[in-house]
Give the backbone structure.
Amino acid sequence: MTMLEIRGLRHAYDGRTVLSVPSWDVAAGEASLVLGPSGSGKSTLLNVIAGLATPTEGSVRVGGEEVTRLAPAARDAFRARRVGLVLQTLHLVGVVSVRDNLRLAQRLAGCRVDDGRIDEVLAGLGIAALAGARASRLSVGEAQRVAIARAVVNRPSLLLADEPTSALDDANCARALSLLLDQAAACGATLLVATHDNRIRDRFARRLEL
Ligand SMILES: Nc1ncnc2c1ncn2[C@@H]1O[C@H](COP(=O)(O)OP(=O)(O)O)[C@@H](O)[C@H]1O
Ligand SMILES: [Mg+2]
């Protein structure tokens, strides 16, 4: 089954085209890399796929649903239900606990609060002990794991990560990538990682070069 189908995609800011993807398909459950230098349109592409931005031209289908045609409210519902996002800015809610950040993600997706699922995800990421910690107290590496936990807690069909390793040293780079791959596999999600980090290119069989 095709999870992602892109056709004739182009995006321009103020008349300047910054992204052009004539055709790209990703099968369900596959892990792929979107590779390109800074400014090549990687974040723009992830935003368009997640329905956070409307492209100038073309279509993006996720699981058969044409994201580019959805009205704003339907698009938000689609994102909450189907997409897990690990953006460069993690946007954790600093004043509440890690557990409450994950509960919030469940509530926003219209899911029942499920502490069992939260414990399972935190354990899988090696941060079970942080459940009660205030998000603002976490180290950068811990916060990134929590962001990954939040992205997968609702078992998305598509997991998108923007530059998840660029700021990390080699050991943490390998670890963060393994966590993303493991978590995607555990929920059967299609994983798309956007990066300019050449250290990780060989971990992916499928690559889109921008
Ligand atoms: N909101 C915006 N308004 C205008 N230009 C933008 C905006 N967002 C990104 N750009 C420009 O679009 C190009 C692609 O940006 P981006 O998708 O962030 O690339 P990447 O993630 O590969 O670094 C860059 O030249 C950037 O400056
Ligand atoms: Mg970017």
